[in-house]
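agent> Task received from the user: take the single chain below, predict its 3D structure, and emit structure tokens. No templates, no multimer pairing.
agent> Plan: (1) validate residues, (2) run structure prediction, (3) serialize to tokens, (4) report one or two observations.
agent> Step 1 OK, no nonstandard residues flagged.
tool_call: predict_structure(input=
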Amino acid sequence: MNKFYKIPLILFSLSVLVSCNIARDNSSSLTGWNFNDPKYGSYMKGTSFQGKKAPDGMVAIEGGSFTMGQVQDDVMFDWNTTPQKMHVRSFYLDEAEVTNSEYLLFLEVMKDVYPPNVEKYKNIYNSVLPDTLHWIKSLGNTGLLTESYLRHPAYSDYPVVGVSWIQAVQYCKWRTSAVNLKKLIDKGVLSNVLENDTIRNFFDTDLYLENPYKLFDGDSTVYKRGLPDNKTRKKGGKKTAKNSFTGRHINSLDGILSQKFRLPTEVEWEYAAKADVENREYNNIRGRKKYPWNNKYTRNTSKRYKGDQLANFRKGSGNYSGLAGWSEDGSDITIKVKSYPPNAFGLYDMSGNVAEWVADVYRPTIDTEANDFNYYRGNIFTKKLIDANGDVVIIGETGQSSIKYDTLPNGKIIPLEYPGEIKYIPITKDDTYMRRNFNTANNIDKNDGDRFSTRLYDLEDDQRTEKSRMYNSPTIRIDEETGKLNQYDINKRSTLISNETRVHKGGSWKDREYWLDPAQRRYLPEYMSTNYIGFRCATDVLGTLSFNKKTARNSSR
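)
tool_result: status=success, residues=557
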């Protein structure tokens, strides 16, 4: 009978321990003040964050060290993919490329939010439209694809192409706000504005966190129920009117809103594509992988699927899919995403189908001497623009910043900023004064094109009479008096390597086997697009970086 008396005692002890832990979590261990308590000023503390599941359509990529670059023979001898040891932090990555149907949703929303028939918005919708004319061939009968590939349901699950790097970045930005808009609706904080035709459904996450009542044309009735507000729990607190917003709005401390979606960096993309995790034995990598799959061949070697191609690529001249009745890869152009087995991380089509944009500005070398931790070239550090009244400036708002457009070299007009968003400007010299980690807003040229990477590094800007010619290819002009070749042409003649040139990775349906190696890298101006480059999104992991932590057997080693 004694054992029956022990059960309540054990349960009581557990409840005491749990309540003590909760009390400890809700109070300051250094001051004794309680967090989220009206008696102590209702000062907030973020709730305990144990990590989240991967966002919809994404898989978790656990970070670690790997060898970036080509580990096989460099048959081209261009020294563009020399091996570099690199560490990558954990992140989330789309399991497949963004498809036509997903991008069409983006287009439809942009058309509703920024109607093309409104004068001030007329260039916005066209700026995000994919270029379907890439399917046309001067000596080919492929014109039908220009009409059907993007919008016909037969291709709805095919990867979107004809999208420039600039357009891919804008999609990632929109996706952030689209995901968080649904989170607010699901939480009951916001009414379902998507079904209300009278409310302009523009939503921006940054603006919501700054001032939610600047959204939806100032209509505060769209907000229904916030999170519990401890400050209103005080006795004698002012009661809210019926059917008005109660509680408080969600903020960053709550950990509810999604992190920003973005393009993966080149290091992240290559790390995820190589998936060396399947070649790991304890803390060592066994062998070298040439492709995303664990095989030195492009064909499946398993008994059931032996001989099947493991990616969609061009087999040779005039051979995109093999013979009729024995198609080698199932498609002569792109193919439906997830048509081939995933790699060890659960990612599909990291080689073949379409090449993919990554975030980095292209340079021939990776500067690991400057940074071997989550390397990325392309940082431009910004801050919110504050007006004379101390308020953030909102683009397109009456009396504030107007919409600015830019004309690209290919003649396309794009907005530099979108109406309703917060205006950001580059940080100033005052912001970087006495800093040791960075000293300028624009770091694209860092160690490769800036003043400190030239022989005139010791001179100030006003002392230099000769400008840097790095990545500029001027012709040499003959001096008419002396006949010597000692004068550079003053006209700027750039190569494709510039601060507006971005990296794309992975082979495509149009490429030969050589480009299936994840280490290979190519580049293209950020405003250009093709019928063989798509993209997928990434986002950051917060908190714990290990998803399946394993304890070392010999901790002393």
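agent> Step 4: summary for the user.
The CA atoms of residues 66 and 86 lie 6 Å apart.
agent> Done.
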